[in-house]
Design goal:
The complex is a heterodimer of chains A (285) and B (203). Chain A is of the alpha+beta class and 285 residues long. Chain A folds into two domains: 81 residues; 171 residues, Lipoprotein localisation LolA/LolB/LppX (outer membrane lipoprotein receptor (LolB), chain A), CATH 2.50.20. Chain A has ten helices and twelve strands. Chain A is elongated, with a radius of gyration of 25 Å. About 18% of the residues of chain A have low confidence. Chain B folds into two domains: 79 residues, RNA polymerase sigma factor, region 2, helix turn helix motif (Rna Polymerase Sigma Factor, Chain: A, Orthogonal Bundle), CATH 1.10.1740.10; 101 residues, Arc Repressor Mutant, subunit A. The chains are: A alpha+beta (285), B mainly alpha (203). The interface between A and B is large, with 47 and 54 residues.
C-alpha cells in the first residue's frame, strides 16, 4: 500500500455513515430490482387477450435513470408478482427467496406423482387421515383418501372404492366437469400456496420436531384466505405443518414419485385395488 | 440438507431460470456497493445509481463470467460505468467540497512529514481537489483499489481491461495524486511494472 492509498482510505473512513440514508437507498434499489424481476416474469407469461404487457413498459422504464422513482411506483405490483404480497412493506429479500422455493416445491416438476399424507383437523372438527396421489402439471388425475372414503379421477372417469364390499364403482366423467375439477384434488398443501400467494409472509429459521425448518408467518391481505403459521423443511422446502384459521394440517409425507408403471397404478382406485369387483355405471349415473 | 451458501456465480446462474435468486445477490452486496457509490458521488446520486447498478446487473446477468466466484467486481464495474456517465457530477461535487472547505493552500505545501501528522479529514479538501483533476479512467482504478479494496486483477475484471492496464493506470493515478498533493513519498508499488522492473515483475 502506498501513501496515497492510505490517505484515500483514511479519507473514506472519515466519511460518516448515514444509516437512514443507506436504508432508504437500499429500499429503493430493492424495489427497483423487484420491479425489474417482475417485469421479466411478466414478459415470460403469455399475453391475455392481446393486451399490452405492463412488464414491457416497466422494463423499458427501468433502464433509465429515473428508475428509482419508477421502481418505487411499481413496487406494489412487483411484489405481488414476486411473492404475492399486497402489503405496504413486503417481505424481506431472503424471505422472498425462501417463499419462491416453497412455491416451487408445492408446484412440483411436471411428469411426476405427488404423494402426500397428512392428518387434517378442520377448525372445530375432528382429525382425519388424508392421503393423495396426484399427477403433477395440473392434469386433474389423482386418487385421494379422505373422510374414510377413497376415490380417484382421471380425464374420463370417476372411481369410488367401497372397502366393506371390496367394490369399485366406475362412472364416466364428462370433459366439462373434469376441466372444472382439475384444480380441486383436495390437496391440503394448496392452502399453504394460497396463503403464500395472498399475503405477506416472513420466514425465520427454526427446528420443527427435530427437523431444521423455516417458520413462515403469513398474514393474508384479504378475508378469503387463511392466515397462520406454516413450517417447511429447510432441506427441500416440503411442508411439515400448517396452522391456520381454517385448521391444522400435519404432514407425514410430501414427496414426488417418478411416473413408473407401479406408481401410475396408485393414481386410480381400480389399479390400486386390482382384486376389487368393478361396477360400471352409465353416463347419467 | 442444504448447509452451504451458494457462490455469487451459482446465484447468477440460478437467476437465469429463477430471477428472484438475484435478490439474494442484492442482499449480499447492496451495502458494499452503496458505500462505494456514496463515497464517489454523494448520498443523493448514489441512491439513484445504486438502483441502476443492480437493475443493469440483473438485465446483463447472462454476460456474467461464471468462472468468477464473486460478483462484486462485476457490480463495481457497472457502478463505475454509471459514475463515469455522471463524471461531471462527481467532479462538481469534489470541487464544491474543496470550495466549501475553504481550501486556498497550495497542495504543494504539504510534505510527507506533515501528512503523517495530519488527520485524513484535514487533508480531505486537498484530496478532493486532486481527485477532481484526475482523469476519469485513472480515478476509477485508484478508487476501486482504495475505496473498494479491489486488487489489480479484480479492477481489470470490473472495468474490462487487462491487468497490466489496471496496474499502469493505478501507478499513474498515484503519481498524479502525489504530485498534486506535493508528496514525495514512495508511490511505487511492487506490482506496477516500470521501465526497469517491468520485465521481471509477475503480471
Amino acid at each position: 500500500m502506498t501513501q496515497i492509498d492510505e490517505l484515500l482510505r483514511q479519507t473514506a473512513n472519515a466519511v460518516e455513515r448515514d444509516a437512514e440514508a443507506e436504508r432508504h437507498a437500499i429500499g429503493l434499489a430493492q424495489r427497483a430490482l423487484s420491479a425489474a424481476i417482475a417485469a421479466e416474469a411478466a414478459q415470460d407469461r403469455p399475453r391475455a387477450n392481446g393486451q399490452r404487457r405492463w412488464g414491457t413498459r416497466l422494463r423499458r422504464r427501468a433502464t433509465g435513470l429515473g428508475l428509482a422513482v419508477a421502481g418505487a411506483a411499481a413496487a406494489a405490483i412487483a411484489l405481488v408478482a414476486l411473492v404475492g404480497s399486497t402489503g405496504s412493506g413486503g417481505p424481506a429479500v431472503a424471505d422472498a427467496a425462501i417463499i419462491r422455493h416453497v412455491r416451487a416445491e408445492l408446484t412440483g416438476p411436471p411428469g411426476k406423482i405427488l404423494h402426500e399424507a397428512a392428518t387434517v383437523t378442520p377448525s372445530g372438527g375432528s382429525p382425519m387421515l388424508f392421503e393423495l396421489w396426484a399427477q403433477t402439471g395440473g392434469t386433474g388425475v389423482y386418487r385421494v383418501i379422505k373422510y374414510g372414503s377413497e376415490a380417484s379421477q382421471s380425464a374420463t372417469r370417476n372411481e369410488v372404492y367401497n372397502p366393506s364390499t371390496h367394490t369399485v364403482t366406475v362412472s364416466p366423467l364428462p370433459p366439462a366437469i373434469h376441466a372444472r375439477e382439475v384444480a380441486h384434488s383436495g390437496d391440503p398443501a394448496v392452502e399453504l400456496k394460497q396463503m403464500v400467494n395472498s399475503g405477506q409472509a416472513t420466514a425465520t429459521q427454526t427446528t420443527f420436531h427435530g427437523i431444521p425448518a423455516f417458520e413462515l408467518r403469513i398474514q393474508a391481505s384479504g378475508g378469503q384466505f387463511a392466515n397462520g403459521t406454516a413450517y417447511v423443511a429447510r432441506s427441500d422446502y416440503r411442508p411439515l405443518e400448517i396452522d391456520s384459521t381454517k385448521g391444522r394440517i400435519v404432514f407425514s409425507t410430501y414427496e414426488y414419485l417418478p411416473a413408473t408403471p407401479a406408481n401410475d397404478a396408485l393414481l386410480a382406485v381400480t389399479t390400486a385395488h386390482p382384486g376389487a369387483t368393478v361396477v360400471n355405471q352409465t353416463g347419467n349415473g | 440438507m442444504r448447509t452451504t451458501t451458494p457462490s455469487d456465480a451459482v446465484l447468477v446462474r440460478r437467476s437465469l431460470r429463477h430471477p428472484e435468486e438475484f435478490e439474494v445477490l442484492f442482499e449480499r452486496h447492496a451495502a458494499t456497493v452503496l458505500r462505494y457509490l456514496q463515497l464517489r458521488v454523494g448520498h443523493s446520486l448514489a441512491e439513484e445509481l445504486m438502483a441502476e447498478t443492480f437493475v443493469r446487473g440483473f438485465d446483463a446477468r447472462r454476460r456474467f463470467d461464471s468462472r468468477r466466484a464473486s460478483a462484486l467486481p462485476w457490480l463495481y464495474g457497472i457502478a463505475s460505468n454509471l459514475i463515469r456517465m455522471h463524471f461531471r457530477t462527481e467532479e462538481r461535487r469534489l470541487r464544491a467540497y474543496r470550495a466549501a472547505a475553504g481550501l486556498e493552500t497550495q497542495p504543494g505545501d504539504l510534505t510527507a512529514e506533515s501528512v503523517e501528522r495530519l488527520h485524513a479529514s484535514e487533508l480531505a479538501p486537498a484530496i478532493a481537489a486532486a481527485l477532481a483533476a484526475l482523469p476519469a479512467a485513472q480515478s476509477d482504478v485508484l478508487l476501486l483499489h482504495t475505496y473498494a479494496e479491489l486488487t489489480p486483477d479484480e479492477i481489470a475484471e470490473a472495468l474490462g481491461i487487462s491487468t497490466g492496464s489496471a496496474r499502469k493506470r493505478l501507478h499513474r493515478a498515484r503519481r498524479f495524486m502525489a504530485e498534486r498533493l506535493g508528496l514525495n513519498g514512495n508511490e511505487e508499488d511492487e506490482t506496477v511494472p516500470t521501465a526497469t522492473t517491468g520485465a521481471l515483475t509477475k503480471q
